[in-house]
């Protein structure tokens, strides 16, 4: 069985910024909803999954906030027009049968990690749909990451990253991605890396010493030499970074516990958004299923 796990907010932001400013007659924004529906239908038509699950964040990432109180504190609010459309996106996703998964206090990335491990252990083929580099650490022979085309360069197309693809893109293996991010930091999550250490230096160290802990253990041998004292002084901070960047694959989950789809509501919701053509297209899709 082929299973697709969708990083909901990552793709919702892309849907919002990838569409023009569309609205209903009363001014309610609908551009993100249009883009969202197109994205899920593209997955259905081109990837042809047997099962498609979408993961959302409900806020309050307890694991991460227990380590750093300022986790993601640098992120501004989502655009107001997008915020208005998120409840519609969530409701339509569940009604259309795509399964919407979210849990208070748990980040979508950790849920995706747990589900990817569970499905892979059962022998299924797993595709994680997201542009988030954190999720590259989950890539194995059975779990690949499907990366959407960059908004700045859509002609690049969708790219499927297998273990070799991850190594080509980042210069390190998938099981080193968390260590790699702990060294260079992740500005989107407000995780500070080692000052002056960029992707090339981090990849070079990890290729030589394999893990963050071994880099710390051999900090007196590092090149460039100017980083030897820095790694020693910041050892505890980068270890804490690793606690943040390493996803939790051990969450208790039930892959069967999901709400039943409501096709009639899915169609009516599109009509409420004044998306008549999409509503008609959905009816045809339901007839052929």
UniProtKB/TrEMBL annotation:
Keywords: DNA-binding, Exonuclease, Hydrolase, Nuclease
UniProt superkingdom: Bacteria
Keyword Nuclease: yes
GO biological process: DNA replication, Okazaki fragment processing
Domain spans labelled 5'-3' exonuclease: 1-261
Annotated protein name in UniProt: 5'-3' exonuclease
A GO term, aspect molecular function: 5'-flap endonuclease activity
